[in-house]
Amino acid sequence: MNGWTPDDIPAQHGRTAVVTGANSGLGFVTARELARRGARVVLACRDETRGRAAEELLRHEVPEADVRLAPLDLADLKSVRAFADALPEERLDLLVNNAGVMALPRRRTVDGFEMQFGTNHLGHFALTGLLLPRLRAAGDGARVVTVSSGLHLLGTVDPRDVQMDGGYRRWIAYGRSKSANLLFVHELARRLAAAGSPLVAAAAHPGYAATNLQTAGVRMEDRRWAEQLVRGANRVVAQSAEAGALPILRAATAPDVRQDDFFGPRVLMWRGAPVRSPRAPWTRDDRASAGLWAMSERLTGVSYGWPPRV
Q1: Taking CA 228 as the corner, what is the angle to CA 224 and CA 229, rounded to the nearest 5 degrees?
Q2: Are 190 and 310 a contacting pair, CB within 8 Å?
Q3: How far is CA 34 from CA 9, 11, 43, 96, 130, in A?
Q4: What SUPFAM superfamilies does the entry give (predicted)?
């Protein structure tokens, strides 16, 4: 048995999805396969030029696709609000929080947050909160899927120093931001379950998938030798973006997905068919998730109001 494949994706006709970071890699594959199954897909992309190229490629690969491009910069809360305000759909069946940055040299978002925490977690926290009324309007089958990483095992959020002002280490910052993704999903799932909502919050990770995410940080510093090393590793040991997107697609579409599920590759959380994945115990800590939620509302200025705190 080969496990779950794209052939297992149920028909998506009549459903609308937003996929962040849909211009390349995991986001592009996710958007394409959802469109192939009949979903209307909004490609939420920071770079308009790359977004247009992705839209054209997707239409070439899926001629019948119902897709459109919309600008979204998760490192700018003004852009996040503008995206949500401009979204014409009154209901939204699926939000895939996929976009992210990895192991960058120290940078700040437009709003002054450490870039990895600000983009990977706070931007998506704000986006989900602003789109929540549309997700609620969709009723049964609506989902929020947030993409984390197996590298969340590098550490959890330190509430005393979320900006890592006490000492910045790029990989620890990345791991903490990915733990923040899982804590967010855990808290959202708890609140939804307590409210009896049909909206499901789940997470996924791609294992080690070859995308441009791995090379962005070293390219920013013009470390060409390191970039070539990463590209070589991607060719030799990584699985493809096509395979890496499968856990995301399963979390987004499979009928057996439960609140707070976490999907990843079967083999050592590295590669293979998507299955329910192990996760660090701290990502299921109710106190930590509630604390991060309150902090995130304060930092972003986005107050959910619903679902109620439990």
Answers
A1: 115
A2: yes
A3: 8, 9, 11, 11, 23
A4: NAD(P)-binding Rossmann-fold domains
Task: Determine the structural domain holding residue 168 and report its residue range.
Answer: 6-208+241-300
Residue 212 is predicted with a pLDDT of 60
Single out the residue of 217, 37, 28, 246 nearest to residue 115, CA to CA.
Answer: 217
Query: Are the CB atoms for 108 and 30 separated by under 8 Å?
Result: no
Q: How many folded domains does the chain comprise?
A: 1
pTM check: above 0.90: yes
Give the alpha-carbon dihedral of 70, 112, 188, 293, to 10 degrees.
-160
Confirm whether 66 is domain-assigned.
yes
Considering the domain boundaries, does residue 175 fall inside one? yes
**In the block, residue with structure tokens 């999805």:** 17
* Model pLDDT for residues 116-153, shown as the tens digit of each residue: 999 999 999 999 999 999 999 999 999 999 999 999 99
Residues 168, 174, 208, 304: which is the catalytic one?
174
CATH of the domain at 67: 3.40.50.720
In a domain, 306, yes or no: no
Cα–Cα distance, 242 to 33 (Å, whole number): 10
Q: Is a pLDDT exceeding 90 seen at residue 69?
A: yes
Asked about 304 being catalytic, the answer comes back as no
Strands 271-276 and 66-71: unpaired
Exposure string over 277-305, b if 16+ CB within 10 A, otherwise e: bebbebbbbeebbbebbebbbebbebebe
**String of DSSP letters for 56-72:** HHHHHHSTT-EEEEEE-
Residue 223 in any domain: the answer is no
CA angle centred on 29, ends 106 and 21, rounded to 5°: 35
pLDDT tens digits, one per residue of 253-268: 999 999 999 999 998 7
